[in-house]
Specification:
222 residues; 3-stranded antiparallel β-sheet; Rossmann fold; alpha/beta; 14% strand; 49% helix; binds adenosine monophosphate
Amino acid sequence: MTDGCRLVMLGRQGAGKGTQCVRVARHFDVPHISTGDMLRAAVRAGSEVGLRAKGFMDRGELLPDEVIIEVVDEQLTGSESTRGGFVLDGFPRTVAQAEALDKIVAPLGGLDVVIDLDVPVSVVLERLASRRVCEKCGANYSVAEPPTNPWVCDACGGDVVQRDDDTPVAIRRRLDLYEQETAPLVAWYAERDLLETVDGLGDADDVSERIIAVIDARRSKR
Ligand code: AMP
C-alpha cells in the first residue's frame, strides 16, 4: 500500500476543479488526471478518440460511458505513475462510470476520498462566461485575471483562449447534465463513506487549504 492520495474531485463546471486539482496533485506529488484535458489534447492531435469526442464536447454532451471508461482505465492501470496515487478531475460523471472506477482502483487500494467542491450555479455561470484557458497546458485564467502578456500563457507560452464549449448554449447543457447525471454521485459516494463536501467559494489559496486539511484528516484515519 502506498502513502499517496487517491482522490476524485466532483463539482459543477466552473467550480474551480481544474485549478484545485493541479494544486492538490502538486501537494501530494501525484499525477493530475483530467479527462477534459486528455480529450482536448486528443482532439488537437486528431487521434481516433479525439475525432470521436469533438462533436460531443462542442455540444456540451457527455461521451458514451464505455469510451471514457476505456480511456481512464488505460491511464490508471497502464502506467506506473499512478501507483503512488492520483487526482481524478472530470471522472466519474455518471453512476456507471463510478461503478467502473470502483473495479479499476480496487487493485490499487481503492479511493481515499471524494471531494465535492461546492459552488452555487449563479457563481459558476459568471465564472464560465469569463473563463479563458491555455490551449497547450490547460492553465486557467479569466477576463478579470488575464495572463501577464495578453493572451499568452504565463506557465508555458501557449495561446490563452475561450473554450469551444464555453458558449451559453453548451454551458447550460453541461450544467443540466451535471444535475441529472453527476450530482447523484454525491449521494452514491456518501453511502460508501468516501464523500467530503468542501466550500469552493473565496480565495483559491483558502480553498486549497480546506481541501488539503480534509484529505489529511482522511489519511490519518487510514
Ligand atoms: P471538462 O473539461 O471536464 O468540462 O470536460 C469537457 C468535455 O469532455 C465534457 O463536456 C464532455 O464532453 C467530455 N468529458 C470529459 N469527461 C467526461 C466523462 N467523464 N464522461 C463523458 N464525457 C466527458
